[in-house]
Each structure stands twice: as structure tokens, then as C-alpha cells.
Design brief:
Layout lengths: L10 H10 L6 H11 L4 E4 L6 H13 L11 E4 L3 H14 L7 E4 L5 H10 L3 E4 L1 H9 L10 E4 L2 H6 L3 H10 L5 E6 L4 H10 L4 E4 L3 H4 L3 E7 L5 H19 L6 E4 L3 H13 L4 E4 L5 H12 L5 E4 L1 H4 L9 E4 L6 H8 L9 E7 L4 H11 L5 E2 L10 H5 L13 H9 L17 H22 L27 H12 L22 H12 L1
Parallel strand pairs: 1-6, 1-7, 2-4, 2-5, 3-4, 5-6, 8-13, 8-14, 9-11, 9-12, 10-11, 12-13
Bound molecules: adenosine monophosphate.
Length: 528
């Protein structure tokens, strides 16, 4: 078995690694470190949780050991898709470089340019940045990239999802042709392949298995849920979530609850808090200091439930999460792997429980195809059963939150099973009147808070990102690439969209949360 000491790493790096207590390199480390130290380009196909951050940080620190940084001219560059991931890389760098004199700067949105400029002015060895913020600094003339010797692109597939690929291409072009490139992606979509063919030179390809797909240490389950009526479905779904949490008892020390939509992240977090659960939301519309505080609280155990969107939580290294609850089935199957991979880390056991509404059955099939397993069906502990179809149709006002928002979801609905195909087995439960009040309130708040973030005020394409301010990609990005385009639909759900779910007419100021009756009257007027 390879040891760290076999890898030709600098003695100071080895000492820092020994301090962390890691005994043997992970497969991605054993595979990527030797070619990186030889100065070769590396293409690492690995996801978070495999130890990939150290697989590029350790050789970088070793290689940068000699030489000094000049003012405004960083010697290396690490690009990460989200602020949290960039901050995580910076933490890793601090830990592994603690016995060296290397300096770093973290350039992310949500923090002041002034402080970042001051660091760059002094000269840094390692610059860790989100692509948008890096380009902002460059365009302000504060940064010169012609001395970059090593460039790392981390989580390239997420960059693609977030529309960052044109920025990455631009940044590649701003750095010297002779740089060494270490490029990491969990998957090799065609667009990623194109980038690596263009910008990497005979890379050493290191691929490690996706840890979470086997999931032997993760107990999985799915509850097929359909509300008793459409009007009650949203509230009943939140009732169900609480019942599922309660059913886990003390085994559920902490959990991440994933929702597909930002609006649901807020609603679910508020609803849980109102019912006495210690919960807080994290998604891209929350300001950075808020996000950082929430994450810190979750990491140090003072916050028990983190309600998150995919983009906010992707790649976060939170080692001891006992449970993941999927409030929705993710519409892109690979997100399921990333979501449940938040639990059962570092050899621990984990539990991943998902709620599947009838309209998500197709997505559930996609997930099961990807993970090559049938996720065990769990009984609905609340015993909610669907009512008659006529009753379900007669509730337009409450459809606001639940209404499918895009043509794609709408067509999916046709594929959904009839209510009785997915009826839960347990007996019905009387709805809690207190929770009904809470429901009306949280949905109302939800409608008031979301549009500001989603209003189509920016002159950019209908592509959105986790970083709504300066980290966000600039215009024209949505025109790129196959997979990027395909996934744009998903991303829109987390941000801006001008098309109200196939109605074809924008309702300014309401974002995607256009009540059915308004959208319908638009459609009718349009037709008439
Ligand atoms: P990453 O994939 O870089 O996010 O790392 C996932 C987790 O594995 C982090 O908590 C690292 O601290 C940890 N880790 C990294 N390298 C090793 C190693 N060689 N042995 C054990 N744990 C490691």
C-alpha cells in the first residue's frame, strides 16, 4: 500500500499531513500526486469525499516551495464553483501549508474587494477564487495572471451546471500556455471533455469510483406521498417530513434536508422552526455572512437541521451527518448521489430518506437506474391518502407553491401514476390545525420574499447560478454546450426565469411563483 512518504512530497507537507492523522493516501491522492509532482497535467475524475482537495493542494504546496510571489502576480490559481467550496479549499491549504511560508488569498463574492486587493497587492503564492470574482478583479486591473504556474479547476461538472464554463475558458486564456493544469470533475460530460481536450496537455488521467453509488453504509428509503387534496398537499408534505424525522428518533443527530427549489428551502426551514425543530436554510439568495454562519453552526453542532438547495450544499465537507432527507426527488439523478453522499462519510453509517410525490415518479426511476438499485419503499408514517380526483382539482389558490413551473415538469405530470398506484399503507391522520395556520403563513411569506431575487432585472441570459452577485457568470453563457443547456432548466428553478412554466408570458415581479389563476388568465388572454 502506498504511504504518503512514498510520494515525494516536501517534508513540511508530510509533517502537516501527519498532524491531520491521515495514515495512507486515498486512491485519488495516490494516483494524482505523483504525476502532479512531475509537472504533468492531471485530469482527476473524482467527487468530493474522495480526498481530492489534498490531491491537488499537497503537490501544489510542494511545487511552490521554491520561489516567491510578486505583487499582483499570483503563482497559482484554484478555481472552485461556489464560495463555500473555495473557502473549504482555503482551509485545506492553511492546514497543509502551515509549516511553509506560502501565502494565499481567497477571492469570493460577498466579501469586500478592498481587503482582497490588499492581499493581492502584497503578492500571493496561491489564489483561490470563484470564477466570477476572479474575472471582476482582473477586469479592474488589479490582477495579473501571467505568472500562474499551476492552475486547478475543481468541480468542473458543477461549473458546467452553473454556467461557468465560458469564464473558465477565459481564465485559461488569461494564464500562460506553459502553466500546469490540475483539473477535477465528478463526471465527464461532452462539454467538460471538450475543455480538457483544448486546455490540458497529455494529462495523466486518474479516475476513482463514485463512492456513494454503492452506498453500502447508507441506508436508503423512499416514501411515495400524495396529499389528501391539492390544497393540503404542501402542508401534508411538511407534516410527513417531520414525522420521518421523528421516526428516526435519537439516531438522527443532525440532518441535511434537500429541496429542489429555493422557495421550498425557505418554507421548509421556517416550517420546521415553527414546529420547534432547530433548522436554518442555506441557498444562493442568502447573503454570504448568513450562509457562513449557518454552515459553521451546522458543522459545530449548534444547528441540527440544515435545509439546503443542491448548489449551496454540493461538495461541502461536513463529516458527521447522520441523515439526509430529500424533500423532493432531484430532477437530475446524479444530484441524488451527491445529496446522499453528505451522509455516511469517512466510514460512518448514514441514512437517506426521500419523499416522492406522484409527479416525481419519473425522476425516481431515473435515480434508481443511475444507482442501479431499487430504493426500499417506506410506509408513510402520517398515513395521508389522496382524496377523490374532483376534490384535488378544486383548489387553485393553494396550488401556488406546488404548481409545476416548467413545461418539462408539466409534461412529466402525464407520466405520474394514478393516486391509488402510490397510496401509502398506513392509516390516515387528522391534520393539525396549528400546522395549517403555519402553512398559510409560510406560503404567504414565501411569495413575498422570493420575487426580488428572481425578478428578471439583470440583462443576462436566462441562466442562473448559485452566486447571484458578483460571482455569477456574465451574459451569454447559456448559449453553451449540450449538457449545460439541458441543465439550464434545473438551474432556472433556483433563480431567474422569464417563462412561466410554458405559459410563455412573464409576470414581472412574481418570479416563478405565479399563482395558477394569474398564469391561467394570461394564457387565456394570450389565446384570445
Ligand atoms: P475531499 O474529497 O477533499 O472533500 O475530502 C473529503 C474528506 O476526506 C475530508 O474530510 C478530508 O479531510 C478527508 N481526507 C483527505 N485525505 C484523507 C486521507 N488520506 N485519509 C483520510 N481522510 C482524508
Amino acid at each position: 500500500m502506498t504511504k504518503f512518504s512514498d510520494l515525494n512530497l516536501d517534508a513540511k507537507v508530510l509533517k502537516a499531513v501527519a498532524d491531520t492523522g491521515y495514515e495512507t493516501p486515498t486512491p485519488i491522492q495516490a494516483g494524482a500526486i505523483p504525476p502532479a509532482l512531475e509537472g504533468r497535467d492531471v485530469l482527476g475524475i473524482a467527487q468530493t469525499g474522495t480526498g481530492k482537495t489534498a490531491s491537488f493542494t499537497l503537490p501544489m504546496i510542494t511545487l511552490l516551495g521554491r520561489g516567491r510571489a510578486r505583487a499582483r502576480m499570483p503563482r497559482s490559481l484554484v478555481l472552485a464553483p461556489t464560495r463555500e467550496l473555495a473557502a473549504q479549499v482555503a482551509e485545506n491549504f492553511d492546514a497543509y501549508a502551515k509549516y511553509t511560508k506560502l501565502t494565499k488569498a481567497l477571492l469570493i463574492g460577498g466579501t469586500s474587494f478592498k481587503e482582497q486587493d490588499a492581499l493581492i497587492d502584497k503578492g500571493v503564492d496561491v489564489l483561490i477564487a470563484t470564477p466570477g470574482r476572479l474575472i471582476d478583479h482582473f477586469e479592474r486591473g488589479k490582477l495579473i495572471l501571467s505568472d500562474v504556474k499551476i492552475m486547478v479547476v475543481d468541480e468542473a461538472d458543477r461549473m458546467l451546471d452553473m454556467g461557468f464554463i465560458p469564464d473558465i475558458e477565459r481564465i485559461f486564456q488569461m494564464t500562460p500556455f506553459t502553466r500546469q493544469t490540475l483539473f477535477f470533475s465528478a463526471t465527464m460530460a461532452p462539454e467538460i471533455e471538450r475543455i480538457t481536450n483544448t486546455f490540458l496537455s497529455s494529462p495523466a488521467k486518474v479516475e476513482v469510483a463514485r463512492a456513494a453509488t454503492t452506498g453500502e453504509n447508507i441506508k436508503q428509503g423512499v416514501v411515495i406521498f400524495e396529499g389528501s387534496t391539492k390544497a393540503k398537499a404542501d402542508r401534508e408534505k411538511r407534516d410527513l417530513l417531520r414525522a420521518l424525522i421523528d421516526a428516526e428518533g435519537d439516531a438522527c443527530t443532525n440532518a441535511i434536508i434537500f429541496c429542489n427549489r429555493k422557495s421550498d428551502v425557505d418554507t421548509v426551514a421556517k416550517s420546521l422552526s415553527k414546529h420547534g425543530y432547530d433548522a436554518a436554510p442555506i441557498h444562493g439568495d442568502l447573503d454570504q455572512s448568513h450562509r457562513t454562519r449557518t454552515l459553521e453552526g451546522f458543522r459545530d453542532g449548534t444547528l441540527r437541521f440544515l435545509v439546503a438547495s443542491d448548489v449551496a450544499a454540493r461538495g461541502l465537507d461536513i463529516p458527521a451527518v447522520t441523515h439526509v432527507f430529500n424533500f423532493d426527488v432531484p430532477s437530475h439523478a446524479e444530484d441524488y448521489v451527491h445529496r446522499i453522499g453528505r451522509t455516511g462519510r469517512a466510514g460512518r453509517k448514514g441514512t437517506a430518506i426521500m419523499i416522492c410525490a406522484p409527479r416525481d415518479v419519473k425522476n425516481l426511476e431515473d435515480v434508481e437506474r443511475l444507482v442501479q438499485t431499487t430504493i426500499p419503499r417506506l410506509d408513510n408514517p402520517t398515513g395521508t391518502t389522496p382524496a377523490e380526483a374532483s376534490e384535488t382539482e378544486a383548489a387553485p389558490a393553494a396550488a401556488t407553491e406546488d404548481k409545476p413551473k416548467r413545461t418539462r415538469s408539466r409534461s412529466r405530470r402525464k407520466d405520474s401514476p394514478k393516486p391509488d398506484e402510490s397510496a401509502p399503507t398506513a392509516s390516515p391522520r387528522t391534520p393539525d390545525p396549528a400546522a395549517a395556520t403555519e402553512d398559510a403563513q409560510t406560503v404567504a411569506e414565501d411569495i413575498h420574499t422570493e420575487p426580488a431575487a428572481k425578478a428578471p432585472s439583470q440583462p443576462r441570459a436566462a441562466q442562473t447560478t448559485e452566486e447571484p452577485q458578483s460571482d455569477a457568470p456574465k451574459g451569454g453563457r447559456s448559449s453553451r454546450g449540450g449538457r449545460g443547456r439541458a441543465r439550464g432548466g434545473n438551474d432556472q428553478r433556483e433563480g431567474q426565469s422569464n417563462d412561466k412554466g410554458g405559459h410563455g408570458r412573464a409576470v414581472v415581479g412574481m418570479g416563478e411563483d405565479v399563482p395558477d389563476f394569474i398564469a391561467k388568465s394570461f394564457a387565456e388572454r394570450g389565446a384570445g
